[in-house]
Amino acid sequence: MVSKASATFQDIVKERADGLRELTFHDLEQLADAPTEHMVIDSRPAKISIIVLRLAASGGLRVVVQGFLKARFLGWHVSLDGFYRYPDETSAALTREDMWDYS
Predict the structure, then answer these.
(1) In what order do the strands lie in the sheet with 37-41?
(2) What is the pTM of this model?
(3) What are 83's strand-pairing partners?
(4) Do the Cβ atoms of 49 and 66 come closer than 8 Å?
(5) How many CB atoms lie within 10 A of CB 55?
(6) Pick from 6, 102, 1, 103: nearest CA to 52
């Protein structure tokens, strides 16, 4: 069962990714050094990072929103969302396998 704090955090990560999907390829390139966002959800610390990596083969970008929410007792809950964006402004979804490196 997912806690209310975890569900809220997953929604925030998804909203961040949805907002990034609206940006152009050029705008996404500029986010390569975006700072980590820190927040508190239900008295638990959390952080969200935007990871933008250039893909050598296609010239596209891999965009990942990676979030960590402190678990109530031990460890962290991880929430991920992301996509690929190409210079011609087309996009593709990240597969679950693509996201394993970020969890």
Answers:
(1) 37-41, 44-54, 61-70, 76-85, 91-93
(2) 0.91
(3) 63, 93
(4) yes
(5) 12
(6) 102
